[in-house]
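We were asked to recover a plausible sequence for a given structure. The inputs and outputs are reproduced exactly as logged, with field labels preserved.

PROBLEM: sequence recovery
POSITIONS: 67
GIVEN STRUCTURE:
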């Protein structure tokens, strides 16, 4: 059951190509995608952006069991 107070965070996996032998992979929140793309573009890197399969609950809004 979900509460109306819970906020769901959409995460994206960003792969930066051309950073070396192995691509650099980052997982960022939706609000940070543009900044990572801009950073990569300034350095001439290509990026692949994919949404993560499951959104993650914001830990600050999750209720903890208090004993």
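RECOVERED SEQUENCE:
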């Amino acid at each position: 059951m979900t509460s109306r107070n819970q906020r769901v965070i959409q995460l994206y996996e960003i792969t930066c190509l051309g950073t070396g032998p192995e691509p650099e992979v980052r997982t960022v929140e939706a609000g940070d995608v543009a900044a990572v793309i801009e950073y990569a573009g300034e350095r001439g890197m290509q990026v692949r952006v994919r949404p993560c399969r499951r959104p993650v609950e914001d830990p600050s809004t999750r209720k903890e069991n208090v004993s």
